[in-house]
Amino acid sequence: MLHNSRKLAWRKSALLIVAVLLVMTMAACGAKETEVATYKGGNVTDKEFNKYLDVFTVIQPTYAQLIEIPQFKEQLLQQYISYKILGSQASEESVKTAETEVAEQMKQFKEQLKTNTELKAALDEKKLKNKDMENYLLLTSKVVAHMNSQVTDEQMKSEYETNLVNYATVSVRHILVATKTTDQTTQEEKELRTAEEALARAKEVKQKLDAGGDWTALAKEYSDDPGSKEKGGLYEDQKNGNWVEEFKQASFKQEIGVVGEPVETEFGYHVILVEKRDTPAYDKVTDATKEEVKSAVAYTLMNKYMTDELPKQEIVSKLPKAEEETPASDAPAGDDAAATDAPAMDAPTEAPATK
């Protein structure tokens, strides 16, 4: 209940981003295809883009209704084009790396299909084949491998030292006094207590801990975090960058061995004790940490490409505009707000996960 949605790891972020960015095998025959976009050196057809939207709604079903919003669909098109371009720039070595990864990923995907009836039904409804998923995974891996290949050791060292808060390894105990709860059946959020009530309860816990109270007993009694309440509130040897921002800052800056003042996050108030914090010099970090650092740099480079380079690709979109699809006089109230609220595809949102 502590993890944030920050896209620290490029690989994880890329897999979320390219859930809406893939190249599909087009049918060799059928109705005449129409261009929906052109760019320097290429184009996108309606069949290609519609196939992509079908896969997108299978992978991200919560966004199914949003694809009909013109501004949102335009975002998907822009991102799709960017990944086609970047995938084509991958070196032979990057392509080989991608192909090896995809072979393993497809084995896992096929195994999942044997037991995941909902996924299989969704694929069947859209008439999607394993080859469609393989093409998606190949584009994903090609872009990831390509962006990773652009990262230098100097960039990695700078990223690590500048954002050490994200790469520290910490062991913390905490007791969460939540302000809301989620129905596990309906996923509906309900208020558990007000912020004022949560703060008062958190201060009560801190007083008991300062007086020598037992973490194991108090966590069981007071904590609303199911991931740690039965373990005395302990999260051991965790990557600090995984926490939500306020918790992350507290676990990095708080004095070791001292119960801190309650820290407010989107979940409620946390009473935190940092037991251990490890921040080795860059040349001493593990290979796994270096991969995380590389992922973060690659993600930054991807964002830079989207901002600086994609506009140079002379993209011309031929998708219908909002006013062409829905006359202003017929548009229901709130359409503009809905379009504005469409999630940005370079930073997809995800619910915080319970550890």
Automatic annotation (TrEMBL):
Positions of region (Disordered): 315-355
Signal peptide: 1-31
Superkingdom, natural source: Bacteria
InterPro entries associated with the record: PPIase_dom_sf, PPIase_PpiC, PrsA_foldase, Trigger_fact/SurA_dom_sf
Record field: compositional bias (Low complexity): 328-355
Keyword match Repressor: no
Full protein name: Foldase protein PrsA
Species whose genome carries this gene: Paenibacillus endophyticus
The organism's taxonomic lineage, starting at the top: Bacteria, Bacillati, Bacillota, Bacilli, Bacillales
